[in-house]
User: What shape does this take?
Amino acid sequence: MIRHFILKCDHKLSNAAFGDILELIREVLPDAKLPSSFNKAKSVLKVLGLDYTKIDACPNDCMIYWEEHENATSCHVCKTPRWKSKDKENEIQNDNGKTYRIPQKILRYFLIKKRLQRPFMCQETARYMTWHADGRESDHFLHHPADGPAWKEFDSLYKEFADDPRNVRLGLATNGFNPFNSMSILHSTWPVMLINYNLPQMIMKPEFLMLALLIPGPSSPGNDIDIYLQPLMKDLKDLWEFGLET
Ligand SMILES: [Zn+2]
Assistant: This one.
């Protein structure tokens, strides 16, 4: 199923095309246990920890409808309504026949805890998660962030964290890109990526970068990016304080 999703992304297949190919495979392999539709295939990914949650947001980047504001119907700063319109025309039906209104803006948060557990669940990648502590050549050259003074300074400040090499050190990066592949459209989307610094040279390979948040445009959130980082920060603080057994 994952290979099928990769093909979908690589060749820009529509959801319908994905479903039709799935139907063909099911026809050829009647005994294979395969999901019957695109939406059912998505639930396979959820089980694997590749899930995300959607959090509604104010279109002016003032707030997200999260925690104590989860059920609010308008922005508590600029009073902009949460949904595009109150009339029935702007309601859409989901697969279960339930109707819901279209939010003005949606933040996608890729649950970080499950993502951080994944490299430890595979023998090959689990080995690399302690590479920064036990796999490195030590000379006086800077090969990896672990050789730098910032890393060493951090270790001396947080000894308890540094004592267990399995603790994950993350870098956070963000930049806008135009999802429609056309520079004449000003809309941009802001992905927030996490970089796993425990790993050796493969650090920047796409398969080891973790997408944490997808902030929709049309324009840059600028300093208001803090608003969108809240769910990620909450989980990271939780991991810092309590950790997670895998
Ligand atoms: Zn607002």
